[in-house]
User: Fold Transcription factor MYB76 from Arabidopsis thaliana.
Amino acid sequence: MSKRPYCIGEGLKKGAWTTEEDKKLISYIHDHGEGGWRDIPEKAGLKRCGKSCRLRWTNYLKPDIKRGEFSYEEEQIIIMLHASRGNKWSVIARHLPKRTDNEVKNYWNTHLKKRLIDDGIDPVTHKPLASSNPNPVEPMKFDFQKKSNQDEHSSQSSSTTPASLPLSSNLNSVKSKISSGETQIESGHVSCKKRFGRSSSTSRLLNKVAARASSIGNILSTSIEGTLRSPASSSGLPDSFSQSYEYMIDNKEDLGTSIDLNIPEYDFPQFLEQLINDDDENENIVGPEQDLLMSDFPSTFVDEDDILGDITSWSTYLLDHPNFMYESDQDSDEKNFL
DNA sequence: AACAGTCTCAACCGCCTCGAG
DNA sequence: TCTCGAGGCGGTTGAGACTGT
Assistant:
C-alpha cells in the first residue's frame, strides 16, 4: 500500500485556528483547489492534520458559506426535515443553500430544540410531549415568531395560548395512528411498523407516504398556528411547498401578522384539493387518477433526499386513499421499511 | 468589580462507508 | 476478494462570550 495516514504526526496543532493559519489555508486552496487533504498541511505550511484542514475549510472558510441568523423559512425546513429524517444534518443542510451541516446541527441543538420543548413538542419524535399535552391528537403550537418577539415583548408569550387548530378527520386519523404507536418513531425517523398487504415495492412506497404524512402533520400544525411570513421571499422552497403556504395565506387574512390564528376549522382534504388544482397548471404533476401504488413510480418522485418535492405526489395519494393507514397488514413479511 | 452559571459554536473525536490498491 | 486509508458524518467537548447576582 502506498497510502499514508493523513491525521497522524508529531507536534500537530489543535484548537482554535489563527488568522495566519486561515490565510495559509485559503491561499493554498485558492491556488491548488480542494482535495488531497492529506498533503495540504505540509504544502501549505500548516502544523495541522489534513482532517482538521478539511473541516476548517468546509465549515468556516469556504467562500460560499452563509453565516448569521437563520430565517423563518430555514427554521421551518429544518424542523420539517428533522421530523422526517432525524439527525441527518448533512441531508438537512443540502436543502439549505450555503448552510453547513455543522451549523444546522448547532442551530438545532442550541435554538430549535429548546424552543420545541418550550412549546410542548418532543424534539425527537416531534409529537406533543405527554406531560404537557394530554391529548396527543391535538396539535401543539410552535411559535416561529416567538424568537423575534421575545426581545420586544419578553413578558408576552403566545406559546401559552392553547392550541386552537382542530385538524380535519383525515389528518387526525393519520396523526392519531402515528401517536398510538401503529407507526413508530425512533430517533426522529418515522418508521412505519404497520405492514401493508402489498408487494414489497408498494409497501415501501406506502411507508414513505406514511412518513410524509407525519411530517405534513407537523408542518401544518406548526405552520398554520405559528406566524408565517410570505413564502415569496424564501429561497430554495419547492413550488408545492410554497403553494401550501399560499393557499393558507389566500384563505386566512393577516396570516403574516397574526400570532394566534384561532382557525376554528381547517379542512385538510380541501387544502389538498387546492394544492392539486394549483399544480394542474404545472408540469410533472401526478394527477389523482394516477395510481401511485401500482405504477412504476418515477424515482424522482420518491427521492428520499428531496421529500419536499414529494408533497404533491403523496398528498394526491392521501386524497384518494384517506384510510390507507388502516389497510390490512395480513400476509406481509415486508421488513425493509423505507 | 468579581464571580458563577449559562450559552454558543468552532473544533475535535470516533465510527462508518467507499474505493483505491 | 480483501485490506486499509480518505473522506463523510453525527455526537460531544470546551473555550470564550454573555448574563445574572
